[in-house]
Amino acid sequence: MAIDYYERIPNNVGLADNRALQRALEHWQPRFLDWWREMGPTAFGGADVYLRTATALDEKGWATYGYVKMPEYRWGIFLADPVPDRRIGFGDTTGEPVWQHVPGEHRSTLRRLIVTQGDTEPASVEQQRRLGLTCPSLYDLRNLLQVNVEEGRHLWAMVYLLHAYFGRDGREEAEELLERHSGDRDKPRILTTFNEPIEDWLSFFMFTFFTDRDGRFQLKGLAESAFDPLSRSCRFMLTEEAFHMFVGLSGITRVVKRSLEVMKMLQSDDPARVREAGAIDLPTVQRYINFWFSSSLDLFGAEVSSNAATYFATGVKGRPDEARFGDHSAFGRLRLELPDGKGGVIPEEVPMRSAMNEVTRSLYVKDCDIGVQRWNRLIGEAGWDFRLRLPSPRFRRSVGAWAGVPTDPDGNQIDPETWHSRQFDWLPSEPDRTFVVGLMQRVTRPGKMASWIAPPEGGVADLPVSYEYVRLK
Ligand SMILES: [Fe+2]
Ligand SMILES: [Fe+2]
What is the CA radius of gyration of the chain? Predict the structure, then answer.
């Protein structure tokens, strides 16, 4: 299905044929633009940024590159092509036709899921808004702004669903999405991770690696939904999300590479000396991993959840890549180890459907570990014994069975005093953050990189790394 770019709101949902919906969205559009100017990337409004824009849905056509001024970016509404005769793939209604409208009994559940997903999109733009001022290169600046405009489009994707399928309360929710703000005392974003400040690029890369990856898993679950417009929205968003994964993985890889270069030069892995040389020492990288990984794990929800069971049973939300599972009823049981409240654990057999959050979380942990192994390969090849690792999923949780149960990164329960005295061995301390923030100096000469990060292996869309990805004014 081609995208109509002559419309005020580019779309492939036939907006021109639905005047009421078109008017409602055209009414929301200037509010979105006001929000973008106020809460979106600080500065760079006048800069020409080499961005990609979706122009068609097929593999090749959807990414067209060119210089764009961000406020003029064509945010649009795109659904992936419909799957002919698509059927519900899991739960109690497996095999029945998918829904083109919202069944009354699932209305509030679907609305809540869409609002929660939608809330994360502008939240991340708000969290990242000042990073451009300290970009380590023009290449990175461009990637940041690309992620930002795409998160803006993801907001559009969810707002379209709210407007098109949820009537008046949908429109009200769409307004609220622009009124809550990341870290706001009175009206914060819905999920904790999306209220965490991101003041430096190491945090940004950690966020795109860990938190955007959570987003990817959530979108995959929603792409399985029996509510077909939601499924098609999420399938299109996933094509964009792949780039965000790339930014996170390659970003951390380049930080590690640079640390290794400096360690080689110094013939030392002494963190203080690595820092003095303008790079980020690996133990600091580890502490940032511990922080963002544990924060992102909370986003999957509680280990045992009746909501998750209902989502699955009713077809509202599936497991990521549901087709890969052999059994789509999930009547089995899953063995979990839960804290017993006395410093030990008790094994518990839980109905699989109630443990869906845990099923997804485990897949996510495995996916994160692929990146960690890649970094460790680099460290090993450079001849150092140090290894990065993911902490135990029990570590520093604030949602679920392990919430408020102090453990060390291996998942051993410890007493609160030990936690207090040792937490900054494991998490970024104030001096760590001050050091990392202090390293962030803006570098804007084409092809030049900041001291703390290695150059990327290639540029954007076959262009050289030294290309002028952002023409600053
Ligand atoms: Fe997104
Ligand atoms: Fe994303």
Answer: 23
User: What does DSSP assign to residue 17?
Assistant: G
Which ligand has the minimum distance to the alpha carbon of residue 244? 2
Residue 77: strand pairing partners:
11
| pLDDT at 56 (0 to 100) | 65
* Protein residues within 5 Å, CB atom, of ion ligand 1: 121, 151, 154
**Could you tell me the pTM of the whole model?**
0.96
Distance 142 CA to ligand 1 centre (A): 17
Those residues with Cβ within 8 angstroms of residue 429's Cβ, 6 or more apart along the chain or in another chain: 287
pLDDT at residue 60 in the model: 58
pLDDT digits (tens, 9 = 90+) for 356-396: 999 999 999 999 999 999 999 999 999 999 999 999 999 99
SS3 track for 82-129: CCCCCECCCHHHCCCECECCCCHHHHHHHHHHHHHHHHHHHHHHHHCC
Residues of the chain with confidence (pLDDT) below 50: none
Q: Which residue has the tokens 């020409």?
A: 48
Q: Please report which ligand is nearest the Cα atom of 152.
A: 1
154 CA to middle of ligand 1, Å? 5
Query: Coil, strand, or helix at residue 470?
Result: strand
> How many angstroms is it from 338 CA to the middle of ligand 1?
32
CA of residue 22 to ligand 1 center, whole Å: 23
Ligand in nearest proximity to the CA of 208: 2
Please name the residues in contact with 363: beta carbons below 8 A apart, sequence gap of 6 or more. Answer: 217, 319, 320
Rounded Cα distance between 427 and 294, Å, is 10
Ligand nearest to the CA of 237: 1
CATH number belonging to domain 15-302+359-471: 1.10.620.20
**Alpha-carbon distances of 270 from 123, 254, 279, 403, 429, rounded to whole Å:** 37, 19, 12, 35, 18
Q: Chain centroid to CA 224: how far? A: 18
Q: Which ligand sits closest to the CA of 219?
A: 1
Q: How far is the CA of 244 from the centre of ligand 2 (A)?
A: 5
- Give the β-pairing of 470-471 and 48-53: antiparallel
**How is the chain split into domains, by residue range?**
15-302+359-471
Phi, psi dihedral angles at 454 (to 5 degrees):
-80, 155
The predicted-structure confidence for 25-72, as pLDDT tens digits, reads as follows 999 999 999 999 999 999 888 899 999 987 666 655 567 899 999 989
The pLDDT, as a whole number, for residue 7 is: 78
Q: What is the pLDDT of residue 157?
A: 97
Q: How far is the CA of 74 from the centre of ligand 1 (A)?
A: 16
C-alpha 204 to ligand 2 mean position (Å): 12
Structure tokens at 149: 């405009």
Q: How far lies 184's CA from each of 3, 39, 194, 196, in Å?
A: 36, 12, 11, 10
